[in-house]
Amino acid sequence: MKFPISTLFLCGCLLAPALARAEPWPARPITITVGFSAGGSYDAMARKIAEGLQESLGQPVVVASKPGAGGIVMTQALARARPDGYQVGFTTSLNLTLDAHAGVVPFNAAGVEALASVARFQSVIVAGAEQPYDDMSGLIAYTRKKGFTQFGKQALVDELVIRGVMDSEHVEFNFIPYKGGVDVRLAAMQRQIDFGYVGAGYKPDVDAGRLKILATTAPDRLPAFPQVRTLKELGYPVSEESVALFLVPAGTPGDIKARLSDAIVKVAATPEFRSFLAQTLLLVPEARIGAGLKASLDAQEAQWTRLLAANRKTAKTQ
Questions:
Q1: How far apart are CA 167 and CA 163, in angstroms?
Q2: Cα(38)–Cα(179) distance, integer angstroms
Q3: Cα–Cα distance, 24 to 52 (Å, whole number)
Q4: What span, in angstroms and rounded, lies between the C-alpha atoms of 49 and 201?
């Protein structure tokens, strides 16, 4: 019995998705897209993780970069990607716990799913080594004398934290946006800005005398720089809690998510990766998946939701 070519073509189209779904995963290269500039801390972590994933999954893992809006540009692109396990995002947890609620830019957090965290940030406020101040009190005095100072930011969290300082001190900071911490560090060293906010990768520049740390925004002091005081110690009611987070498009099959997350935390738990985080990037190793990750993100979300509500209330009364 013969069938028209059009009928055979239609049957082939109907069978194609089923055959694609039956394809063993992974059958081709996986891409990790980083939400920040190439050469920065996220890029460095992603490349370390990618090396381990290649060994455990048996496929090439490519690292790409799509910086902008503190990771939101990449996260929104990921939300539109096919949920087949071949597109993975790497960004800050703040995209889900803060940015999704801020209303600053259109952002649909429902389009992505958290997969695994690998590190907790200990962000700092830095200035170029040649600036005439060494701590926050010196910066505030300099700002009052000059009338304003230029602040380099990457994301909304930077602005929220520094606005807390600005409002407490009744001084003026001009906010200059950058695509990543590398750009902020370079701008500070070249004195294009008076101070900036960076999450990692600053230790070599501090050790070499190119940057100095004015304060840390972390809840606790930095083990590598114990003399640096926290913003809370200085009387500012702000601190930052965020983790480096792997994401996948919503709807990615559960078995693929399980294999990916297990493979990621396996690499993140190695002594080599943990040492790289602690010694090179000054980050706290924090590999979480499943319920542990959800609890961590829920706690962060509650903190930032309260801060956003307080800021909106303050803005209405001014």
A1: 6
A2: 10
A3: 20
A4: 17
Rounded Cα distance between 153 and 258, Å, is: 35
Q: Using an 8 Å Cβ cutoff, are 176 and 194 in contact?
A: no
Domains of the chain: 29-121+242-311 (3.40.190.150), 125-216 (3.40.190.10)
CA angle 241, 256, 243 (to 5 degrees): 10
Instruction: Measure the CA–CA gap between 98 and 117, rounded to whole angstroms.
Output: 16
Confidence (pTM): 0.79
Distance in angstroms (rounded) separating the CA atoms of residues 130 and 42: 28
Question: Measured between alpha carbons, how far is 188 from 126 in angstroms, rounded to an integer?
Answer: 7
Q: What is the pLDDT of residues 237-292, one digit of tens each?
A: 788 889 999 999 999 999 999 999 999 999 999 999 999 999 888 899 999 999 99
Confidence check: pLDDT of 114 > 50? yes
In single-letter form, the type of residue at position 97 comes to T
Please count the CA atoms within 13 angstroms of the CA of 42 that sit on its side-chain side: 32
Instruction: Take residue 121 and report the two structure tokens written for it.
Output: 């940030």
Q: What is the mean pLDDT of the chain?
A: 89
